[in-house]
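User: I'll paste a sequence; please echo it back and then give the predicted structure.

Assistant: Echoing your sequence first, then the prediction.
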Amino acid sequence: LLLGPPGAGKGTQGERISDRLGIPVLATGNVLRNAVRNGTDQGLAAKAYMNRGDLVPDAVILGIIKEALAQPEMKGGVILDGVVRTVAQAEGLSNALADLGRHLDTVLLFEVTDEDLVRRLGGRTVCERCQTPYTGMESGSPCPKPGCGGTVVRRMDDEPQAITTRMKAYRAQTAPVIDWYRGQGSKAASSSAKANGTRVLTVDAAGAVDEVTQRVLRQLEE
């Protein structure tokens, strides 16, 4: 499970870890869009909320995640990105995994300073179709990802004031999540279920992308 503030590089690192470990990335936004597009039961439920302009409830999001985790390509392991933002979602994910006879092995917590985040996000654009993030690419440019055909845009929530607001929300919501996962790991470590404990690994997300990837891989190997 990848955790960290907006702009910490979770998406980029998730893809790199995926390539190295040979397991897929499951990102909430992509899974939600696929479920809506494919007209699954949970996707139709999500679409009804979205059409009303309402937030999709945790129960529906977790239902979509659970459907995706049950697919054959997910059997060998998966990297979860953007799935957990609150303690309630962490508890819901834990229950969904238990229903599937699975557990969360590792939380990777990416840490970066506010100054770095403002600098990164200030130069970030994203493809409006495939949601691939780019740095230093002008808004309005065609997405360079083969076969996409989308347009690169700058998101309103990447403006400096919006970044500050997002950071406040992240810290308020996610600090309890980190404590919750650390508590789960401690409980497992003190029982016979140690193998199913969740470990929380903190990763310094500052610096070049390659450097951060090496830090992640070293932590996982250790």
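Helices lie at 10-21, 28-38, 41-51, 58-69, 87-99, 114-122, 160-189, 209-221. The mean pLDDT is 85.
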